């Protein structure tokens, strides 16, 4: 019978603390990993994710990701369609008033 292995769960705050401890430079990454009982591979994975997240957070809002560009384009389309709908609604109101005047 095999037992299911239990993995420790780290919170975001714990992961950040570990990565920052390694980035401070007052001790080696190996020592930090030993203290927190994690592998160096896991440490570097967390570090890369933290740094990548920081890049996204600091990026210019206009150039963050392709998704942001797509959202901006869709917002422009919605605004254009709303303006067109407004014009057509106005035209129908005017046409209705004119047709009432003919009778």
UniProtKB/TrEMBL annotation:
Q: Name one Pfam family in it.
A: HTH_Tnp_1
Instruction: Give any GO molecular function from the UniProt entry.
Output: sequence-specific DNA binding
Gene3D superfamilies reported in the protein's UniProt record:
Winged helix-like DNA-binding domain superfamily/Winged helix DNA-binding domain (1.10.10.10)
Superkingdom, taxonomy of origin? Bacteria
**One biological process GO term for this chain?**
DNA transposition
Q: What protein name is recorded for this chain?
A: Transposase
> What's the source species for this entry?
Cellulomonas carbonis T26
Lineage of the source organism?
Bacteria, Bacillati, Actinomycetota, Actinomycetes, Micrococcales
């Amino acid at each position: 019978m095999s037992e299911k292995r239990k993995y420790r769960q780290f919170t975001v705050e714990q992961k950040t603390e570990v990565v920052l401890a390694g980035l401070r430079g007052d001790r080696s990454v190996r020592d930090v990993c030993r203290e927190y009982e994690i592998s160096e591979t896991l440490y570097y994975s967390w570090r890369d994710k933290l740094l990548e997240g920081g890049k996204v957070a600091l990026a210019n809002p206009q150039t963050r990701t392709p998704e942001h560009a797509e959202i901006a384009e869709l917002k422009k389309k919605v605004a254009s369609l709303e303006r067109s709908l407004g014009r057509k609604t106005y035209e129908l109101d005017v046409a209705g008033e004119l047709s009432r005047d003919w009778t």
